[in-house]
Amino acid sequence: MSERPLIVYIAMSLDGYIAAPDGDIRFLDAMAVEGEDYGYKSFYERCDTLIYGRKTYDKIISFGIPWPHAGKRTFVFTRQELESTREVVFIQEPLAPFISRLKEEPGEIIYCDGGGEMVRALLQEKLVDELIVSVIPVLLGEGISLFPPSFPTQALQLKKHQAFSSGLVQLHYAVDKHNAG
Length: 181
Hints:
Elements lengths: L5 E8 L3 E3 L20 H6 L1 E7 H9 L10 E5 L11 E3 L3 H10 L4 E4 L3 H9 L5 E7 L7 E2 L8 E10 L5 E12 L1
Parallel strand pairs: 1-6, 1-7, 3-4, 3-6, 4-5
Antiparallel strand pairs: 2-8, 7-10, 9-10
């Protein structure tokens, strides 16, 4: 039995930020084009498990909408002890052993949508199999970086790339776990 993949599917500004300094993600709104989802629906349909960091979870909750991932297992990593809900299980245990167990379970894609701290930790622990990064044609100048300057070297292999008429460029990489810094 092979491990199921953990895929990071995330958007960032051209200068590498996933949000403004205050967590604002309105820069993503410029990419809203009627009838275009940039491949998200077909990707999402192949996912049965989602993982988030606490700050990203809080951002989703702040939208005041019903939980958008009903019917999919969702785990949120947090340092605080929180009571799980019907939709979300809060995890306080170390990341690597939990994700390793999750990858061994039968299932489909494990999807990580953020945030930056979560993505960095997953990459440092060599738990990410693929990165799908949508580059938004905007320069924020500052904010929450997806990959900070102190991030260790990580080799990637380009699987696919696509440019859209909106200016968004989507890059799909396999992570080379054997050639990491």
